[in-house]
Write a structure and sequence with these properties.
Helix content is 0%, strand content 53%. It has 118 residues and is mostly beta strands. The strands form two sheets. Strands 2, 4, 5, 6, 9, 10 and 11 form a seven-stranded mixed β-sheet that branches. Strands 1-3-8-7 form a four-stranded antiparallel β-sheet, with no helix packed on it.
Length: 118
């Protein structure tokens, strides 16, 4: 079992920056790809960015060049640096962890609100 704790959400004006962090506790060997999804009101949850244990990254096209995902395998943490935020980035952001040993088992965080508004 993996327990996830997210932090770093908040209110920021357009053009501002935020850094989201996610810590996954449990058996480190069971933690595979880590990522962030977001869900805006009335919309489906969508992938924002993910990173494998080896460091391979994938981004949604709308955040490329603005968001950067990184991870620390020793501490089972993943970060999402979000720059040049836009109003359309407003959503609840969820940390996601995919099992490395029992695919497709996965775990979700409770979510953290990001609001981009002046």
């Amino acid at each position: 079992q993996v327990h996830i704790v997210e932090s770093g959400g908040g209110l920021v004006p357009p053009g501002g920056s935020l850094r989201l962090s996610c810590s996954a506790s449990g058996d480190g060997d069971s933690i595979g790809t880590m990522g962030w999804y977001r869900q805006a009101p009335g919309q489906e949850r969508k992938l924002v960015a993910r990173i494998s244990r080896a460091g391979t990254t994938n981004y949604h096209y709308s955040v490329k060049g603005r968001f950067t995902i990184s991870r620390d395998n020793a501490n089972n943490t993943v970060h999402l640096q979000m720059n040049n935020l836009k109003s359309e980035d407003t959503a609840v952001y969820y940390c996601h962890v995919l099992s490395a040993v029992n695919y497709p088992e996965d775990w979700w965080g409770r979510g953290t609100q990001v609001t981009v508004s002046s």
